[in-house]
Amino acid sequence: MIDLGWVLSRLDSSDILDILLVALVFYALLRLIHGTQAVQLVRGILLFMLLAIAIANVFQLTAFTWLIRGAISALLVAIPVIFQPEIRRALERLGRTGMILTRPSEEEASQIIEEVCGTAEYLSQHRLGALIVFERETGLQEFIDTGSVLDSQVSSEILIAIFYPYTTLHDGAAIVRGNRLVAAGCVLPLTGNPSLDRRFGTRHRAAIGLSEQTDAIVVVVSEERGAISVAHDGRIVQRLDRTRLRNILRALHRPLLRRELRRHGPWQRLLRRLVPGRSAARGE
After folding, report:
1. Sequence-separated contacts (24+) of 95-100 with Cβ below 8 Å
2. Weakest mean pLDDT among 3-7, 44-48, 160-164, 165-169
3. What is the CATH number of the domain that holds 113?
4. Is residue 4 part of a domain?
């Protein structure tokens, strides 16, 4: 058993400075990739490597230990290549000003949700299509870069104007970050799910595709049927009215309930309580 007191007594000022510098380097690297999809991949790699090293040391596996050491050396070369797009975007963001994310208060979040619900209801009544994305923990900067930067307040008037036909931005998605409408006309990835209902158009496929790759919440309004839907975690809940849409968005924006969802499993359990008679389904 390692004597922590003995270890601390052996440290001098240079050792402490050394440790702080290493911690600072790792912190800076994590800050660079924060807000990109690379975060989940890095977490997965680190967890896998730590688990593999622990198994190798506990069971004294010589060949496996040699393999892990070789894999770590290869990863040091491969990581900059794998994460080249994310690293480039992160460095670009580092050079910009005003990149501190302002998280909305509970009152602001409720107001933003009301504005989005009002927009969805208006567009549904007038059979106008829309895609409205709420960024959460996974950064959406790479998708924001495909659209036009707005950085405006979130209001139903602005959103309705964006999705009104014949405007240059109505075919893309509007993205909300914190308490700001940061961009519109953004291009989202389409889902590759072959079992998806054929009735789903490009907007629904884009909403599901983004929710498969990130933890974003996507509100969809169908141009053909005027139906309001919400996509999250690769699933989509359809045929919502304003009240049910508000309930879902409020629940998914509460940090306590977000942690409960991650701890207890799929978000359908919450939806069964909030939206009776509706279920979140893949391609249904």
Report:
1. none
2. 3-7
3. 3.40.1700.10
4. no
The span from the CA of 278 to the CA of 73, in Å, is 50
**Residue 8 resides in a domain:** no
Alpha carbon 38 to chain centroid distance? 11
User: Domain end: 94, 122, 147, which one?
Assistant: 94
Q: Which two tokens stand for residue 246?
A: 């508000």
DSSP string for 121-170: HHHHHTT--EEEEE--SS--HHHHTTSEEEEEE--HHHHHHHHSTTSTTT
Confidence bin at 91 (pLDDT 50/70/90): low
Residue 10 burial (10 A CB sphere; 0-12, 13-18, 19+): exposed
254 and 172 together in one domain = yes
Domain around 175? 106-274
